[in-house]
Amino acid sequence: MKTALRFLSGFALLALAGCASMADTPPSVDVTGNWTGTWIGNPATRSGTVNMTLRQNGSEATGDMRVTGAIVNRNGFVRGRVVGNTLMLTDPPDLRVTLTVNGDQMAGRGAGQIEGQVTLTRQK
Known about the structure:
CATH topology: Lipocalin
Largest sheet: 8 strands, antiparallel, barrel
Strand order of the largest sheet: 1-2-3-4-5-6-7-8
Helix content: 10-25%
Strand content: over 45%
Structural class: alpha+beta
Mean pLDDT: 84
């Protein structure tokens, strides 16, 4: 019993350390700029456009976002956290989006009113 408890305690500490190191990963990208692109839902007839203006300060990105298309029309404040080359939107709280940044492109999955694929390009 003691051995099992020690094992589980050790495993929990390792898991927490792994989570902490991921959260502490500094940004390797800067998402500052004007981004435009598309979202494609399921079914694909539920799709539209995305426009974001972001400013990054350290690992925090804030700005404005406008999403339009089939059954979606929302705009407003957006906040996210940049970890490594990933932007994770945290605000508004009902929108969950994780995007991988590669130069002037970012793409990933999002879920809000509907779930879908998001692809954005930084405008120059």
